[in-house]
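Figure caption, in words: inputs first, then the predicted bound structure.
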Amino acid sequence: MKKLRVGVLFGGRSGEHEVSLLSAASVVKAIDKSKYEVVPIGITKEGRWLTAGAAEALLQGKPVDDTKHLRAGDPEATPGAAVLASGESVVVPPEPVHRSSLAPFQTDANLRRASDRAINVDVIFPVLHGTFGEDGTIQGLLELADIPYVGAGVLGSAAGMDKDIMKALFRAADLPIVKHVTILRSDWDAEPKKAEKTVDRALKYPVFVKPANLGSSVGISKARSKKELGPAIYEAAKFDRKIVIEQGVGGAKNKAREIECSVLGNDRPQASVAGEIVPVKEFYDYSAKYLDEGSELIIPAKLTKPEMKEIQELAIRAFQAVDCSGLARVDFLMDPKTRKLYVNEINTMPGFTAISMYPKLWGATGLGYSDLIDRLIQLGIERHGDKKKNQYSR
Ligand SMILES: Nc1ncnc2c1ncn2[C@@H]1O[C@H](COP(=O)(O)OP(=O)(O)O)[C@@H](O)[C@H]1O
Ligand SMILES: [Mg+2]
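Bound structure (adenosine-5'-diphosphate present):
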């Protein structure tokens, strides 16, 4: 049987570049080599795509020779039909090009077309977290290039990334979410007092202030009083034009319990057992996630049977609410006193090292890491096949 060529995409321009390197290294190590041939594709922090040899070095943390670029997509369309017919063709390469995003479309026999230099893979596993990886941008490129890929599509990725839109979809699906207010940076810049008042009136302290689109807890802070609200918004506004401010679960006295559940599938997704994270810090901030030792994973989470069942059902509904596919980790906050559950967020490309929560929850549910990777690749191919059934015009 011919082996499938799997492009493992990693690195990227997000703050989670390094996490991605770790996740990808685990995937490359564990993937079933009798079925798959791995083509590692690295994206530098600057957004340059590297060929296999250099990509492997990047994966191992060695310095890279990034003179060789890859162009995965070749969207041949340009804005005007006239340009298409007779103009000088250009491609939009999947990397930020100095000064202009339009690269010359080479026709000279020696300077081959960008499409000729495209990577040749059957499916891509974008092991990319955060901005430009988990937000629909890379998914859009792969859609244009017509390459099957693992995980959520453009819509699910983008919706899952934007905490404001995600909450709107969760609410529409009748999922329990915390009370929140979304403000625009421009409104905050223009009338900070008014913005503060809006929050102050709608919510009780403590509140959590977050940039709508990011991850890894970057830009997030807990404001315990009105005095702390301004600085928290100021911080979050550095990272996004939308700021989400939420009621703190647990109130002033208690910390929220953090329960997570893994979901796998396309149209008929399944949920794993739920696990719990006990952060060393006051909340699960960036340093607790990646720098400090000691945050504890408890699998399965200490919950009653009905609670566990409820979480699994909510996780599947959250997955469907944002039109996800492939995989997602759904994170919950639980009030330790009342045991009331809230869906906090969905992560469409959760941390994926062999010891990350997502695969560990599947491990505890009976699906090992290598089999999980295998399943995800199959789901990606399935989704692509399903999409191929669509006709785009009469
Ligand atoms: N409403 C809330 N109540 C209590 N704790 C919260 C709340 N929102 C966030 N947190 C804490 O902040 C952490 C990061 O918030 P989260 O929304 O998960 O952002 P990210 O997408 O960066 O992971 C959570 O894991 C939790 O510890
Ligand atoms: Mg989170």
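Residues 331, 345 surround magnesium ion (ligand 2) (CB under 6 Å).
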